[in-house]
Every structure is written in C-alpha cells, then in structure tokens.
Amino acid sequence: TTLPGQSFTVSFSAVPSNTSNSPTAMTGNVQVSDGVNSCTGAINGSGAGSCSITLNTTGSRTLTATYQGDGNFNASPASTGVGHTVTNTATWTGATSANWATAGNWNTQLAPGSSNDVDIPTSGVTNNPTISAAGVNMNNLTVASGRTLTINSGLSLTATGLCTISGTMSVAGSFSCGTLSGSGGVSFTGAAAQNIPAFTYNNLTINNASGTNLSGNTTVNGVLTLTSGNVTTGANTLTVATGGSVARTSGHVIGNMRKDFVNGNISPDAPSAVFAFPVGTVTGYSPVTANATAASTGSLTVAAFDGTAPATPAIPNATTLNRYWQVTKTGTVTAGMTFQYLDGDVDAGTEPNYRLLRSYGPGVQSLSFPNVGACLGAGSTCVDTAANTIFQDGVVAFDGFWTAGAATSPTAANVGISGRVLDTQGRGLAHARVQMTNQNGNFVYAMTNPFGYYRFEDVASGQTYVVNAVSKRYQFTPRTITVADALTDVDFVAQ
C-alpha cells in the first residue's frame, strides 16, 4: 500500500522459455506498469532486476511486467498481474515507535503529507502516535476510540478538512482543523498559555497551570473538565450545552460562561436542576449556582468581576462587596441563585450589614433587598456571612449586576406583575383566576380578561411569591418568583 505520488521499488526476474539455444543469458530491460504509470529496469546476468515506480491513481491497481527483448530473445507478453493499493489515507500502526515522522509506523511506509488523510484506528496499533519532531499538515484526521494522539509543546497539527476525534487528542502545542467532530475529547496540557480554537467540542479538558484563552465562542456538549489553570474568554462565551456538565478540580472561567437548560434540566439523559458555574476573576474562584425550576427552558450566562458593581448614583465602595456578577438569560428560566464570595472581597467591619444588592449599570438606581428569615441557602433572600453566600430564590428577571453590601437608598419599590393564562392549544383563557401568595401566606387574586391576560398592581419587590392559575377545566404548575422589578411574562400554559 502506498500514497499517491509515493515512489516504491518493484523487483522482477526474466527467465527464457527455451534454454537449449545459445547464449542462454538474457540481457535488456523489463518494463513494469499499472496501465497509467510505468518504470523500466535492466536485468542482470541471472535475469533479475528492479525499478522504482510512482503511482498517482488511487484504488486497487494491477502491476504487470513485460520483457522488452534483446538480440537473442524476443520480447515477452505481459506477466500475470500483481495487486497493489494506492490510497490517500495513511493508517497509523505504531509498529516501531510512537514517533509520527518514522516511516515504519505507517502502513504506507511513509509519513503522510499535507494532501493526505490520516487514520489512527482502534485496532492494529502497537504505540499511540506522538508529534515530537516537527509540525505536521494533512487533509482529514480520524482518531478512533481508545486512541490518544499527542502533540508536544512547540509543535502544531494542521488539518484543512475534518478532524474526527473519537479518542483523545492531547495538545501541549497547538492544533487547527477545518471542522471538528467525534465522540471523544481534546485536552490542553501545555506548560505555556494556550489558545483554544473556537469549535463545538464533545469533551474538553483544561490541564494547563499557565491558563488558556478562547479564540472565539466555544461550546462543550459533553464534559468540561477543569483540572488545572483558568480559561479566559475575553469577549467570547464558553457554553456548556444542555447535555453537558462540568467536572472541576482546580481552575475556573474568567469571563462569560453560559449554561443551557431544557425543562429545568441541565441534561436530558441525566436530569438535574442544579448547575454550578465555575466562574471567577484573576483574584479568585467565586462560583454561581443556579437551581432551575421544572418549566425552565433557555439559558443563563454568568460572569464575575472584581470591584464595586456599577450604578448611578454609585454604590458606596466602603460598605459593598468588592466583587459582583453579571447575569443574563434567554428563554423562560426561573431559578434560585447562589453567589459565592471570598473573605478578601469584604471590607473590614461591614459584612454584618450585608444584604443583596442589584444594580443595572450606569444611569440606573441600584436596589437593596432585606434579608428575610433564616439564611439556609434555600427559601428566602439572604446573605450568609458565615458561608460567604448571597441567595435569592424564584428569580425570573436576571439581567443586571448582583452583589452584596449595606442597604442602599432607595430599597426595592412596589411594581406590577402581569402575564397570560393559555389553554392546551395556546389560546388565551378567559375568566381564569390567578392567585399570588406572599411569604406570610397572605394572598390576592386577579381574573384574566377575554384574551387571557392578568395583572397585579403595587406588588412589593424584594419578596418571594407563589403564583398559580386556577380553572375548572385545566391544571397549571405553580410558579415561585422573587420580584426585583416589574415582570410582564409570568405566563401559565395548561397541562
């Protein structure tokens, strides 16, 4: 088996059909051909010889030899054909070592070039390949399940076509592919900072104490493993898709991290409503945990920042946490949110006065929310100064900045809550009753209009409520909401 354009040697021998004539020794040349390409070699006194041929046509080829005759012997007809395969795919065997550049490690007896495809199969391999001598170029790359391709520090792999990684690609240097697919994973293991190409990965592992940087928006469908070192996103976003999860030992994400939810679960095949965003800043790890309700389908994006949350008028630095988080959502998500801060984020003597603060950027007044009841990490808005956590349950309006500090003025004002009640066909349901119950068990009612819309006025913000729709013909799932601002999308769909 050879690659297109690869030269190889063909040996042959010529034997006279009648040795009674004299002289019996044959001279002259033999031509070897596959019908397209050919080579010619002279025979020695014993009739043996060889020539070097290069085949350019891929597929199964048939080589024949023809003796061209001399002054004593006539030319021969073509010999019986011998099969030979020309393929554009070099298959790794690792028969002699792990060195990618060693010819004997390939079924073609030649390392592949930039126009060739590369296959590292599951079976028939003695040693896993390592790119250790020089950077390599190819067309398509396949790393089968159970195989590991290693790219040493300072070296690169460039595939202009598709990289299918069903095993593992361990990258201490760098790589680029036209596209990336496969059920395996890519692990970044360098000693110096590395750039992560902008792909959708199945599994992605970060094990680089010097850190990694996103080259563009990046998605992980399987497991994001943080073993060592931080991931800096810059202006990009690192997304863990609905089916994805995080396994963390050390390191965190500096910048935007997004998690997708479907029906309140982080993974359809392993339902769980709780997801911990492993975010932080250059000064430390400050994760955010979201506990989504069953009806949540959409995404949350979280980023952590050092300093005082922006607001107009400014939030006082001296009485406010020196850390804040920005949260944005898409779709319909309701979740309890827990923010973890560090001891070093607290100004001396101010922590006992902390409560949840939310700001919405320059030009928007910040709001403070009083601590309600015992702070056990579930149930009510609170700051737990022993556990260094900020908690709010039933959040439906996420956008803006989250932090903690002493009460600011004004505190949360009264707002309006509205939505729509829909039947199983998505049509507005008239004359349905919507009940809203506060934390003390007190409740109020609103009735839907002929188009299914309802509204509550003068609702105290900074509180948690249970809202439910009631109809004789339909059942609805109650919603728990924490009111930070006016809400217009508290909708109910009949089951």
Account of the protein in words:
- By secondary structure, this protein is mainly beta.
- A hairpin with an 8-residue loop joins strand 42 and strand 43.
- The protein is elongated.
- It has no helices and 44 strands.
- The mean pLDDT is 91.
- It starts with 6 loop residues before the first strand and ends with a strand.
- Strands 17, 18, 20, 21, 23, 25, 30, 31, 33, 34 and 37 form an 11-stranded mixed β-sheet that branches. Strands 9-12-14-16-19-22-24 form a 7-stranded parallel β-sheet, with no helix packed on it.
Key traits:
495 residues; mainly beta; 11-stranded mixed beta sheet; 7-stranded parallel beta sheet; 44 strands; 0% helix
Structure at a glance:
By secondary structure, this protein is mostly beta strands. 0% of the residues lie in helices and 47% in strands. The strands form nine sheets. Strands 17, 18, 20, 21, 23, 25, 30, 31, 33, 34 and 37 form an eleven-stranded mixed β-sheet that branches. Strands 9-12-14-16-19-22-24 form a seven-stranded parallel β-sheet, with no helix packed on it. Strands 7, 8, 10, 11, 13 and 15 form a six-stranded parallel β-sheet that branches.
